[in-house]
Amino acid sequence: MTADADGSWVALFSGGKDSSWALYRALETGLSVSHLLTVHPSADSYMYHVPETGLARLAADAVGIDHVEVTADDLDATEVTDAGAQGDRELAPLERALRGLVADREVAGVTAGAVESEYQTSRIEALCDRLGLDLFAPLYGEDPERLGRAIVDAGFEVRVVAVAAAGLDESWLWRRLDDAALDDLLALRDQYGVHPLGEGGEFETVVVAGPHMDGRIDVDHETEWDGRRGRVHVTDARLVYSDGASTRE
User: Residue 16: CA atoms inside 13 Å, Cβ hemisphere, count?
Assistant: First the structure.
């Protein structure tokens, strides 16, 4: 997982906290990130963040980096019993998009936000090997509590947009991931085994503001809760730049 500063970099970007932190770290390291690449799954996914990826285009505008979007149709993970085969299948639209970018310019590598998932990381590493690209995965193997504190301390405003685990009730929907929330997640880890960064799919997030963004994403939303799991549905979103100008998603 190297980080060669020569050439441009493509950030795999969902708009969630992990891919946003990987992008932030890449920019801090001095990597020239030329594109953010978002895959929009049409259904449940083993490989990709699913809820509210439409906000990624506003985040890309706030960061000021060109944005490439890919819709991954017909990749419903519930239809396939072999998780490995499904992961390989889900990687196909991402690979096509990356091949297009590599064909048009000199790309040095890819940034990714996996924390502990060997399932995701091994497939992205294999993809990078096929394309002759480096992989910058600054979260991988790091202590999740330390990572969470670093994200909060850096000034990221992270909001929870989906929950699906014991101990995470409706009150977590749109809750800000701050030090108090991290304390609660650590307690839920001890009680229920919840991963404090949601690496096991316990929860999903979006980043609406951060030190790498010019302004913030303001969101109107509704919540859906079935008694065991729930999610946020964005009804309106707008990027409010630091100078007061705004644009809608």
Answer: 28
The pTM for the full model equals 0.90
DSSP secondary structure code for residue 228 in this structure? S
How long, in residues, is the chain?
Answer: 249
Q: Is 81 helix (H, G, I), strand (E, B) or coil?
A: coil
pLDDT for position 1: 46
Single out the residue of 200, 206, 194 nearest to residue 233, CA to CA. 206
Burial class (CB in 10 A: 0-12, 13-18, 19+), 131: middle
Domain boundary among 136, 171, 194: 136
**Over residues 195-215, mean pLDDT:** 96
Domain total of the chain: 2
The answer to whether the CB of 142 falls within 8 A of the CB of 133 is no
pLDDT tens per residue, range 135-176: 999 999 999 999 999 999 999 999 999 999 999 999 999 999
Cα–Cα nearest to 147, from 14, 25, 9: 25
- The CATH number of the domain holding residue 46 is 3.40.50.620
Alpha-carbon distances of 169 from 18, 53, 187, rounded to whole Å: 22, 22, 14
Residue with tokens 């304390």: 183
The pLDDT score that the predictor gives to residue 128 is 96
Confidence (pLDDT) at 138? 96
Amino acid at 171: S
